[in-house]
């Protein structure tokens, strides 16, 4: 372990919030605790990130003339992105993808599972939870194969079930497929988060709601939701970010057919690898970061206002 | 038992069945194709054989890549868990200036930077550090990428641990170290276990980082190997892929089961309102 | 709070370091470059690394096996006889070509990477422009030593283009290929078409397709299109058609933009996919090419434009990925005709496109002389023949070809009939983007856009890819 900070003499460091620091850690030791993580993050995340931003204002390529002598092109990568129909397309598809699979799909299915499984028999509960979790922990390269097989045009499982042999799902409805796939893939996180959140709801309040004859929906809206609002927002924030930056659509459709499922991360990959335009792809990455930031700020605002 | 109640029960179970099927059906391929004499992309009752297993076991690098995967991912998972635990406890209990902005900023960064765009900086940096072709180097990069989200999740977990435990321990004269070891750690264990699994799973499937940073095929992890099971023209080798996929999935499942039975697999989350 | 300010000072320092380091981007003058071509020429202990995109048990497994189990031991043995202790390592990747290229370029830009590197012929130009590879005479330092290698005489001039850029040799070609029209003789018989079919114009392909269309469940013509198939669309579709109109994609440094020839090619696509002669869905599938193989093998595709790889490794009766037990009798092959007789590039009646790789020496190798020796050894008649391991395959060497292809009429057909009329792609940095623009144009047409609209957006894409209007010719 690379703890570089020396254990400084313990000071009664109670600058602010003395009631918080219950174990008597103190600022210096707290910094020592944070240091290894921050060092790693600084070296392997922040540093490359700053560098990436720099590449974004050059016309750097990995091969060809621009590889030897990249020149600073200022913001022209950004103006290019703003006029790039494919980038607009990617942005729009990413919004659809996040909205469909994370905000709606994973969130609702995850909550529904957490809510219904509360009262289910342990055997049922364990089986369902295990399946949902399995979908979450399988390696993504493996999962990609599972879904390619599931959607396959000729011998795919979906076509066998529906009796629609010959329907090329991944071609005809690529975004629907991706939304389904990602809902399947990520619901476990929401389910787990919500089941622990639901434990925070006082049973007495649920009981009285039932006595007043409230319907299931009313109970959720009026009794449960106020208790788990923070969880809902954290969860939505995390899964939205993860989904927006998810690369697995590439494994299923490679962004095709004809860019119809090319979300921003896939577009960045295609620009960087197929086109070799690292400058441009870095600029788009930065734009994606900005978009993420806006989404996060929006969530935080919502959180503040509600609480 | 009113009719309405019965209808509701039936509806409930139909829903459960539908959800179960939704989650189970795509996985069937993993159960049938590895054992099929002519594995394809479809799911059908297999023409039982173990030849695919024999072929996979005879593959010159397949089995060893699992060892590499384990090396890389255990290192990553342990490092992520340890560092995130320390950091999240400190951030939860001691008010460091700019804490929230820092957390959110890093979280955002982590979700974007680990992708394709940063591969040049990461490669060049690792090259200068002499960490190319090193499994340890791969683990370091992965750790850096996973830490922010881990701290974020774990901090919420630690926030939820009642401070009264620590307070009373303090009243009884326990030192800070004792409190951390004997009070905080046991309470936080399920959260740590969950992060451990989460970090392990996330690094287990990562393809791009090890591919770029490792040169010798003998050191590549399974996620990279899985991409090489093709023939000359790049068509998938369907006798090896299903078996390898199955074997490659076992460690994560085992780890999950282990952690689940010991500590329970639970997330605490939500910004306290 | 003092601590904090110290922290922030650290942060300032850190970001200053960042700015300094970012300056390193792309710079190739780090000063420590060793330019003496005879460095370590007399070393008694030599270490070399061969890099390739192949791996045992995966992509191009046979190539990896040959390198590791035959080439390296033989070379080590030969060097031992000279009193030199050589260790040769093989670094195989076995991934997608684009990812492999990226990784290779990353290594080379950091002055690292294997001593012998295998590259696709179309990368030679961009790698050369980036300074990642240098002309062999520069790296070896002795023009005569390179030019006098007797192997060059055995490599046809057209094939040597694979390793060349701006008239200089950057690498030794490593085998080539050729494209033809394959057809299913069984389906042809049912449709009343001859077994020795040889179309002389595009119209004759279309009319054969119309005859095949009458058969149930048969896709008459498969000409790769769209972006999902990537370079396969360009090589097994657009470019063979384009050279059939008399044009090449790059003439005298200018890329071909929206022009009658491009529109002619797109019209042909329109004819095939707009009138039900081809399967437009297949062109959009991620694994469409694999699928086209499987369908051809299952007698569901009448005519297919593919390379000799299709014959050797796809429908090959024993080990092919889509085996056809009756390949030798059921699969016919014909030269790709020009749009009209005599209308092809250089006034040819028949045309084709070829690709292939080359092996170059890493300019930063510690042992340039020994690397050149290994490269020659690798491309000696003995080793080239050994690399085939009994299989019939078109190699870079004519002497080996005439010996090993004698038993395979199809490959002999390629070596003797196709290679003389074939063309290679330009190995320029812009090529991949031009290729992507071409693929996009076919995707547009297959997706229902008019030829004119597709050609127009193609023009825009080509201008963007070439960097300026002056580098595009259109009319």
Automatic annotation (TrEMBL), chain A:
It is found in: Cell membrane. SUPFAM superfamilies: MetI-like (SSF161098). Its main location: membrane. Gene3D superfamilies: MalF N-terminal region-like, MetI-like. The chain crosses the membrane at residues 33-57, 90-116, 128-150, 278-300. InterPro entries: MalF_N (IPR035277), MetI-like (IPR000515), MetI-like_sf (IPR035906). Residues 92-299 form the ABC transmembrane type-1 domain. Keywords: Cell membrane, Membrane, Sugar transport, Transmembrane, Transmembrane helix, Transport. Belongs to the binding-protein-dependent transport system permease family. PANTHER family: BLR7065 PROTEIN, SPERMIDINE_PUTRESCINE TRANSPORT SYSTEM PERMEASE PROTEIN. This is Multiple sugar transport system permease protein.
